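Protocol step 6 of 9: fold each sequence in the batch and record its C-alpha coordinates directly after the sequence line. For illustration, a two-sequence batch is reproduced in full.

Sequence one:
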Amino acid sequence: MLLATHSLVGAFIGKEIGYPPLAFLLGIISHMLLDAIPHADGPDDKPDQKESDPISFDQYALVAVDIAMGLVVFIYLGSKGELSTSAIWGAIGSILPDALDNVPFYSGKLRSIFSPLKLFHQFHARIQRIKLSMIAGLAVQYAIALIFFILMILL
Protein backbone atom coordinates (compact mmCIF):
# COMPACT_ATOMS: atom_id res chain seq x y z
CA MET A 1 0.00 0.00 0.00
CA LEU A 2 1.04 3.57 -0.52
CA LEU A 3 2.10 5.73 2.42
CA ALA A 4 -0.91 8.04 2.11
CA THR A 5 -3.27 5.10 2.54
CA HIS A 6 -1.36 3.58 5.45
CA SER A 7 -1.02 6.91 7.23
CA LEU A 8 -4.69 7.87 6.87
CA VAL A 9 -5.84 4.54 8.29
CA GLY A 10 -3.29 4.78 11.12
CA ALA A 11 -4.31 8.36 11.89
CA PHE A 12 -7.97 7.41 12.02
CA ILE A 13 -7.23 4.53 14.38
CA GLY A 14 -5.16 6.84 16.58
CA LYS A 15 -7.85 9.50 16.60
CA GLU A 16 -10.45 6.98 17.68
CA ILE A 17 -8.24 5.21 20.25
CA GLY A 18 -6.94 8.37 21.91
CA TYR A 19 -3.93 6.69 23.56
CA PRO A 20 -0.64 7.21 21.66
CA PRO A 21 1.21 3.97 22.58
CA LEU A 22 -1.78 1.83 21.61
CA ALA A 23 -2.35 3.94 18.49
CA PHE A 24 1.26 3.31 17.46
CA LEU A 25 0.92 -0.46 17.96
CA LEU A 26 -2.44 -0.61 16.18
CA GLY A 27 -0.96 1.49 13.36
CA ILE A 28 1.69 -1.21 12.83
CA ILE A 29 -0.96 -3.93 12.89
CA SER A 30 -3.16 -1.97 10.45
CA HIS A 31 -0.18 -1.81 8.10
CA MET A 32 -0.01 -5.58 7.92
CA LEU A 33 -3.75 -5.96 7.47
CA LEU A 34 -3.80 -3.40 4.65
CA ASP A 35 -0.83 -5.03 2.92
CA ALA A 36 -2.74 -8.32 2.91
CA ILE A 37 -5.43 -6.74 0.71
CA PRO A 38 -4.61 -7.40 -2.97
CA HIS A 39 -3.21 -4.18 -4.44
CA ALA A 40 -0.36 -2.75 -6.52
CA ASP A 41 2.16 -0.15 -5.48
CA GLY A 42 3.02 1.19 -8.89
CA PRO A 43 4.56 0.31 -12.22
CA ASP A 44 7.43 -1.72 -10.72
CA ASP A 45 5.15 -3.81 -8.49
CA LYS A 46 4.90 -7.06 -10.44
CA PRO A 47 4.82 -10.68 -9.28
CA ASP A 48 8.17 -11.41 -10.95
CA GLN A 49 9.88 -8.24 -9.65
CA LYS A 50 13.23 -8.86 -7.97
CA GLU A 51 14.75 -6.60 -5.34
CA SER A 52 17.87 -6.27 -7.46
CA ASP A 53 15.91 -4.89 -10.44
CA PRO A 54 16.47 -1.16 -10.97
CA ILE A 55 13.69 1.17 -9.85
CA SER A 56 12.03 3.01 -12.72
CA PHE A 57 11.54 6.76 -12.94
CA ASP A 58 7.78 6.14 -12.98
CA GLN A 59 8.00 4.34 -9.63
CA TYR A 60 9.99 7.19 -8.08
CA ALA A 61 7.45 9.67 -9.49
CA LEU A 62 4.53 7.73 -8.00
CA VAL A 63 6.22 7.64 -4.59
CA ALA A 64 6.93 11.38 -4.77
CA VAL A 65 3.29 12.12 -5.65
CA ASP A 66 2.12 9.78 -2.86
CA ILE A 67 4.28 11.55 -0.28
CA ALA A 68 3.19 14.99 -1.53
CA MET A 69 -0.50 14.00 -1.46
CA GLY A 70 -0.10 12.57 2.03
CA LEU A 71 1.51 15.78 3.27
CA VAL A 72 -1.23 17.93 1.73
CA VAL A 73 -3.92 15.76 3.31
CA PHE A 74 -2.22 15.84 6.71
CA ILE A 75 -1.71 19.62 6.56
CA TYR A 76 -5.40 19.96 5.73
CA LEU A 77 -6.46 17.62 8.55
CA GLY A 78 -4.15 19.45 10.95
CA SER A 79 -5.64 22.80 9.96
CA LYS A 80 -9.10 21.40 10.75
CA GLY A 81 -7.99 20.18 14.19
CA GLU A 82 -8.34 16.51 13.28
CA LEU A 83 -4.79 15.42 14.18
CA SER A 84 -4.38 14.62 17.84
CA THR A 85 -1.11 13.31 19.26
CA SER A 86 -2.64 9.85 19.20
CA ALA A 87 -3.59 10.24 15.52
CA ILE A 88 -0.03 11.23 14.66
CA TRP A 89 1.38 8.22 16.53
CA GLY A 90 -1.09 5.95 14.72
CA ALA A 91 0.11 7.35 11.40
CA ILE A 92 3.77 6.90 12.39
CA GLY A 93 3.13 3.29 13.41
CA SER A 94 1.33 2.63 10.15
CA ILE A 95 4.23 3.77 7.96
CA LEU A 96 7.07 2.41 10.12
CA PRO A 97 7.11 -1.07 8.51
CA ASP A 98 7.67 0.43 5.06
CA ALA A 99 10.18 2.96 6.41
CA LEU A 100 12.24 0.05 7.73
CA ASP A 101 11.66 -2.45 4.94
CA ASN A 102 10.98 -0.71 1.63
CA VAL A 103 13.37 2.21 1.25
CA PRO A 104 15.89 1.10 -1.39
CA PHE A 105 18.62 3.43 -0.15
CA TYR A 106 19.10 1.65 3.18
CA SER A 107 16.65 -1.21 3.81
CA GLY A 108 18.94 -3.91 2.41
CA LYS A 109 21.79 -2.74 4.63
CA LEU A 110 19.53 -2.69 7.69
CA ARG A 111 18.49 -6.29 6.97
CA SER A 112 22.10 -7.40 6.69
CA ILE A 113 23.04 -5.74 9.99
CA PHE A 114 19.96 -6.62 12.04
CA SER A 115 18.76 -10.18 11.32
CA PRO A 116 15.21 -9.77 12.74
CA LEU A 117 14.59 -7.26 9.93
CA LYS A 118 15.46 -9.98 7.41
CA LEU A 119 12.76 -12.21 8.92
CA PHE A 120 10.36 -9.26 8.98
CA HIS A 121 11.11 -8.59 5.30
CA GLN A 122 10.25 -12.19 4.40
CA PHE A 123 6.96 -11.94 6.30
CA HIS A 124 6.19 -8.50 4.83
CA ALA A 125 6.80 -9.75 1.28
CA ARG A 126 4.73 -12.89 1.84
CA ILE A 127 1.58 -11.02 2.94
CA GLN A 128 1.79 -8.85 -0.19
CA ARG A 129 2.11 -11.68 -2.69
CA ILE A 130 -1.30 -11.19 -4.38
CA LYS A 131 -0.91 -8.37 -6.90
CA LEU A 132 -3.48 -6.56 -8.99
CA SER A 133 -2.93 -4.59 -12.18
CA MET A 134 -1.58 -1.12 -11.52
CA ILE A 135 -4.89 0.61 -12.30
CA ALA A 136 -7.00 -1.76 -10.18
CA GLY A 137 -4.39 -1.88 -7.41
CA LEU A 138 -4.13 1.88 -7.11
CA ALA A 139 -7.93 2.22 -7.31
CA VAL A 140 -8.27 -0.10 -4.31
CA GLN A 141 -5.80 1.99 -2.34
CA TYR A 142 -7.28 5.34 -3.20
CA ALA A 143 -10.77 4.07 -2.36
CA ILE A 144 -9.53 3.00 1.09
CA ALA A 145 -7.73 6.33 1.54
CA LEU A 146 -10.86 8.27 0.56
CA ILE A 147 -13.03 6.30 2.99
CA PHE A 148 -10.65 6.97 5.89
CA PHE A 149 -10.22 10.62 4.92
CA ILE A 150 -14.00 11.04 5.10
CA LEU A 151 -14.14 9.15 8.40
CA MET A 152 -11.42 11.42 9.83
CA ILE A 153 -13.56 14.45 9.06
CA LEU A 154 -16.95 13.02 10.03
CA LEU A 155 -16.10 11.24 13.29
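Sequence two, same batch, same settings:
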Amino acid sequence: MREFPKPLQVYVVEDSAILRRVLVSAIEAAGGVLVGCSTDAESAIAELSTLRPDLVLIDIALKSGTGFDVLEALQKLDSRPTPIKVVLTNHAYDEYRQMSAQLGASAFFDKTTETSQVLALIGALAGEGRGAWHPASVANRPESEERR
Protein backbone atom coordinates (compact mmCIF):
# COMPACT_ATOMS: atom_id res chain seq x y z
CA MET A 1 0.00 0.00 0.00
CA ARG A 2 1.43 3.36 -1.01
CA GLU A 3 1.51 5.89 1.81
CA PHE A 4 2.02 9.01 -0.33
CA PRO A 5 -1.25 10.04 -2.03
CA LYS A 6 0.88 11.97 -4.52
CA PRO A 7 4.34 11.45 -6.01
CA LEU A 8 7.22 11.68 -3.54
CA GLN A 9 8.01 15.38 -3.10
CA VAL A 10 11.69 16.12 -2.57
CA TYR A 11 13.59 19.27 -1.64
CA VAL A 12 17.36 19.36 -2.27
CA VAL A 13 19.84 21.50 -0.30
CA GLU A 14 23.08 21.08 -2.26
CA ASP A 15 25.65 23.55 -3.62
CA SER A 16 27.29 21.18 -6.13
CA ALA A 17 25.65 21.64 -9.52
CA ILE A 18 26.83 18.20 -10.64
CA LEU A 19 25.36 16.38 -7.64
CA ARG A 20 22.13 18.42 -7.88
CA ARG A 21 21.71 17.18 -11.46
CA VAL A 22 22.35 13.58 -10.38
CA LEU A 23 19.84 13.84 -7.52
CA VAL A 24 17.18 15.53 -9.67
CA SER A 25 17.59 12.85 -12.34
CA ALA A 26 17.19 10.12 -9.71
CA ILE A 27 14.13 11.81 -8.24
CA GLU A 28 12.47 12.16 -11.66
CA ALA A 29 13.45 8.65 -12.79
CA ALA A 30 11.86 7.22 -9.65
CA GLY A 31 8.62 9.10 -10.27
CA GLY A 32 9.24 11.70 -7.59
CA VAL A 33 8.89 15.45 -7.93
CA LEU A 34 11.50 18.09 -7.11
CA VAL A 35 9.59 20.77 -5.20
CA GLY A 36 12.57 23.01 -4.55
CA CYS A 37 16.31 23.34 -4.50
CA SER A 38 18.71 25.64 -2.70
CA THR A 39 22.47 26.13 -2.53
CA ASP A 40 22.46 27.93 0.83
CA ALA A 41 20.91 27.51 4.27
CA GLU A 42 18.97 30.78 4.37
CA SER A 43 17.07 30.14 1.13
CA ALA A 44 16.41 26.54 2.10
CA ILE A 45 15.02 27.53 5.49
CA ALA A 46 12.77 30.20 3.96
CA GLU A 47 11.38 27.82 1.34
CA LEU A 48 11.00 24.86 3.71
CA SER A 49 8.98 27.01 6.11
CA THR A 50 6.17 26.99 3.54
CA LEU A 51 6.78 23.80 1.56
CA ARG A 52 5.90 20.38 2.94
CA PRO A 53 8.17 17.92 1.12
CA ASP A 54 8.22 14.24 1.98
CA LEU A 55 12.03 14.09 1.77
CA VAL A 56 14.75 16.70 2.28
CA LEU A 57 18.28 15.89 1.04
CA ILE A 58 20.83 18.08 2.84
CA ASP A 59 24.52 18.79 2.30
CA ILE A 60 26.53 20.00 5.30
CA ALA A 61 28.85 22.49 3.56
CA LEU A 62 26.84 25.06 1.60
CA LYS A 63 27.53 28.35 -0.21
CA SER A 64 26.45 30.11 2.97
CA GLY A 65 25.34 28.60 6.24
CA THR A 66 25.39 24.86 6.85
CA GLY A 67 23.18 21.85 6.63
CA PHE A 68 23.12 21.91 10.43
CA ASP A 69 21.34 25.29 10.22
CA VAL A 70 18.74 23.70 7.95
CA LEU A 71 18.27 20.67 10.23
CA GLU A 72 17.89 22.91 13.27
CA ALA A 73 15.31 25.09 11.52
CA LEU A 74 13.37 22.01 10.40
CA GLN A 75 13.22 20.82 14.02
CA LYS A 76 11.56 24.10 15.00
CA LEU A 77 8.93 24.05 12.24
CA ASP A 78 5.54 22.66 13.09
CA SER A 79 5.48 20.50 10.02
CA ARG A 80 3.10 17.55 9.91
CA PRO A 81 4.04 15.07 8.75
CA THR A 82 7.71 15.62 9.45
CA PRO A 83 9.80 15.15 6.31
CA ILE A 84 12.45 12.47 6.13
CA LYS A 85 15.76 14.33 6.46
CA VAL A 86 18.82 12.76 4.83
CA VAL A 87 22.32 14.21 5.01
CA LEU A 88 24.66 13.61 2.06
CA THR A 89 28.10 15.15 2.58
CA ASN A 90 31.81 14.97 1.84
CA HIS A 91 32.38 15.72 5.53
CA ALA A 92 31.47 12.30 6.92
CA TYR A 93 33.05 12.77 10.32
CA ASP A 94 31.64 10.93 13.34
CA GLU A 95 30.92 14.23 15.12
CA TYR A 96 28.94 15.46 12.08
CA ARG A 97 27.05 12.17 11.92
CA GLN A 98 26.15 12.47 15.63
CA MET A 99 25.18 16.13 15.33
CA SER A 100 22.99 15.36 12.30
CA ALA A 101 21.19 12.62 14.23
CA GLN A 102 20.68 14.93 17.21
CA LEU A 103 19.15 17.50 14.85
CA GLY A 104 16.69 14.97 13.46
CA ALA A 105 18.40 13.50 10.41
CA SER A 106 17.06 10.05 9.58
CA ALA A 107 20.23 9.01 7.77
CA PHE A 108 23.74 10.26 7.02
CA PHE A 109 25.67 9.34 3.88
CA ASP A 110 29.21 9.97 2.66
CA LYS A 111 29.11 11.44 -0.88
CA THR A 112 32.36 9.77 -1.85
CA THR A 113 31.26 6.22 -1.06
CA GLU A 114 27.50 6.13 -0.46
CA THR A 115 25.80 8.26 -3.12
CA SER A 116 24.41 5.13 -4.78
CA GLN A 117 22.65 4.27 -1.50
CA VAL A 118 20.94 7.67 -1.50
CA LEU A 119 19.81 7.11 -5.07
CA ALA A 120 18.41 3.70 -4.06
CA LEU A 121 16.66 5.32 -1.10
CA ILE A 122 15.00 7.86 -3.39
CA GLY A 123 13.78 5.02 -5.60
CA ALA A 124 12.45 3.03 -2.64
CA LEU A 125 10.62 6.00 -1.16
CA ALA A 126 9.15 7.09 -4.49
CA GLY A 127 8.07 3.56 -5.35
CA GLU A 128 6.66 2.40 -2.06
CA GLY A 129 6.19 5.37 0.23
CA ARG A 130 7.66 6.08 3.65
CA GLY A 131 6.86 2.62 4.90
CA ALA A 132 9.29 1.09 2.40
CA TRP A 133 12.31 2.40 4.27
CA HIS A 134 13.22 2.54 7.92
CA PRO A 135 15.88 5.00 9.12
CA ALA A 136 17.34 2.46 11.55
CA SER A 137 18.26 0.21 8.64
CA VAL A 138 20.86 2.75 7.51
CA ALA A 139 21.46 5.31 10.22
CA ASN A 140 22.58 2.95 12.97
CA ARG A 141 24.95 0.70 11.07
CA PRO A 142 28.40 0.23 12.56
CA GLU A 143 30.97 2.40 10.78
CA SER A 144 32.80 -0.68 9.48
CA GLU A 145 29.68 -1.63 7.51
CA GLU A 146 29.15 1.91 6.24
CA ARG A 147 32.56 2.11 4.59
CA ARG A 148 32.25 -1.11 2.54
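Proceed to step 7 once all outputs are recorded. Observation for sequence two: DSSP finds seven helices and five strands in the chain.
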